[in-house]
Amino acid sequence: MRQWLYALVVVSALAVAGGIGLTIGSASRDAVPAAIAQQSAPTGATVQLGQDEQNIIRVARQVSPAVVSISRSGGSGSGVVVRSDGIVLTNAHVVGNVRAVEVRLADGRRIAGRVLGRDASIDIAVVRVQASDLPTAPVGDSDALEAGQTAIAIGNPLGLERTITTGVVSAVNRSPRGFGLDGLIQTDAAISPGNSGGPLLDSRGRLIGINTAVIVAPGAEGLGFAIPINLAQDAIDQIIATGRVVRAFLGIQYADIEPEVARQFRLPANEGVLVTGVAQGTPADRAGLVRGDIITRLDETAIRQGGDLRRTLRERRPGDTIRITVARDGGSRELSARLVAAP
């Protein structure tokens, strides 16, 4: 059997200091065909803009002042102001593990920013700057998104501040392999190193996501991803209130099931989450989960892959009791687990 091998490189849209070079070619007038060179707009002519162009310009003027640059030792990225008293959203990987960053506002001011907290599980961080009356981006509803809607990204790719790129929402609820993130918005609006943490907007200029990563592979273009704002909102609220995010904890290690693997090892299910380890004394252990179980459902939610499991657990709180349906020994069993706070 011929084996096909291809490499998929997942690149966080974070501009790491150093090592990035640009070669910019120039074109002289002599290189332009004479017929084109001679064509110029008449003096005083009015350029007629289409409705879509006018709308993008409006959104850019409205939201660009709320887009900031965030710098720390080792790299930089983007952020967006969501509260006029100095609350800035960005990615957890933009701020890293530091507590202090430098924030450059659209008006040129450089202000010390304090990282209030981060949630690496969804790549979100909240930064506060000591400033008032800042321009903000209005928050939209990412749950209402549909593939094909206009998507507008604003950020600082390679240090080029407040760059505007446009495209569409290519898909919703994506869980690309290798990211460790799920439920993402996919877009073909160009996202490059330095765009991380910047806003993804709808056609009305409302914040629908935080740009986080892009897939780079031979022949692949327009595969950018953003964290839906609704997915991040609970974490944001917790960080602002307490400085940390409390997640429900089950206590298992797991892996996705591929149909080929299921056939090879004669697994009792073709999709679900294979339990590869159970930590002693955890809710999973007390519920009776064992290595080799295949989780197919949590409460009423079908579990087809790890992203489904993570997303469902994020919706639960410590103290909640969940029903876990597993495939085991050729049959199906239902277990019950009382979740605790993640350590």
The CATH homologous superfamily of the largest domain is termed PDZ domain
In N-to-C order, the SSE pattern is EEHHEEEHEEEEEEEEEHEEHEHEEHEEE
**How many beta-strand runs?**
22
SSE-based structural type: alpha+beta
Low-pLDDT runs: 1-41
Radius of gyration: 24 Å
* CATH-scheme architecture of the largest domain: Roll
Q: Quick one: CATH class of the largest domain?
A: Mainly Beta
In helices, the fraction of residues equals 10-25%
Largest sheet: 6 strands, antiparallel, barrel
- Taking the alpha carbons of the first and last residues, their distance comes to 46 Å
Classify the fold: give the CATH topology of the largest domain.
Answer: Pdz3 Domain
Beta-strand percentage? 35-45%
- Major sheet: arrangement of strands: 9-10-11-14-13-12
Nearest-integer average pLDDT:
85
**Shape summary:** globular
Number of helices: 7
Instruction: Provide the domain count.
Output: 3
Written description of the protein model:
The protein has 343 residues and is an alpha+beta fold. The chain has three domains: 51-129, Thrombin, subunit H (Beta Barrel); 142-233, Thrombin, subunit H (Beta Barrel), CATH 2.40.10.10; 248-341, PDZ domain (Pdz3 Domain, Roll), CATH 2.30.42.10. The protein has helices spanning 34-37, 51-63, 92-95, 229-242, 259-264, 283-287, 306-314, and strands spanning 9-12, 15-16, 67-72, 75-83, 87-90, 100-104, 110-119, 124-129, 150-155, 163-174, 184-187, 199-201, 207-216, 224-228, 248-249, 252-256, 273-278, 294-298, 301-302, 321-328, 331-338, 340-341. Strands 9-10-11-14-13-12 form a six-stranded antiparallel beta barrel. The chain is globular, with a radius of gyration of 24 Å.
